[in-house]
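Suppose a colleague, Dr. K., hands you the sequence of a protein chain of 352 amino acids and asks what its three-dimensional shape might be. Before reaching for any lab equipment, you can write down a predicted structure in token form. Begin with the sequence itself:
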Amino acid sequence: MPPEETKVVAGSSASARIIAAGIVIAFCYWASAVLVTLLVSVLAAYFLDPVVTWLEDIRLPRALGSLLVVLLTLALLAVLGWSLIQTVDQFSLDWPEYRQTLRAATQALQKDLETLEAHVSEIEPTERASRGVVTVTESHAVRDALIGRLSSLSVFLLGASFVPFLVFFMLAGKRQVWHATMQLFAANDRTQVRDTLAEVTQVLRSYLIGTALVGLILVLANWLFFWGLGLDFPFLTALVSGVCNLVPYLGAIISFVPPLFVGLKQYHTVGPFVGIFVVLTILHILTANFLIPALVGWRIRLNALALTLSILFWGWMWGLMGVILAIPIAAVVKVICEHVESLRPVGRWLSA
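The predicted structure, expressed as tokens, is then:
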């Protein structure tokens, strides 16, 4: 083939790849609700599959075992949700006290800012136009936020309602789905596909189990600390704080919010808040440097730059759910790249 034709073919191939990548990104963006629901269901199925397999080993039919596991999981989530609702209800009754504390802190901050502004105006005196009086009416922030996000909430509830059914079908029909997936590929490629899917299963299962163990350790440690500190609602506060700590990067900051907010009503000195900050910081450092590498990182093997780029991209694409799903998505992409000859350099870069 002449050099000119080779350049044209190479340019067309590169353009086709760019267009295909753009189509995939657009599809991921516009079909976010469907894809997030599907990915959450897949992760839940991978997490619950060992329990279903154990029930099958003790002579329980797989369909019945899958149904029992899904129902028990829903019951556990319902209990936790009901406890959280009761806590929120109690918190709403105590809201005037929290509101008074927040208002006092806001007024103190406003007074300091006015003092600073007065000192600055003394340093650089200028004539200022008279300021009009602005009347600020109190708005119902929670109600306005709920109304504003009603559409997003309905999409979330619609997707969540499909998750139990998808998980059940994935668990009950595991062998049929596996066999049907193999039939999608040519006979000479099925061995490679089977090895790839087997490694994907190991990576996802290790990630989910390791993350669950890390979350359990964090929740128990926070619970004991909050209980010893005498904080209200110690278990649920520890549960929310521990789960928030699992969010990559942002979790270190978000995990401080629940205990600090609950402690506003109880503590009127800075000491307990400093203690909460110090203990949670130590727990986060231990988690990031010891627990996650020991229980999760040994199987994922992704470099920090790849993780950061994955979190940024999927967080931009799907918001908070994208941040949560970014690590397993990157891990699956790495495994696929390692088993495809033309993509192995990408797989080596992801794990470098």
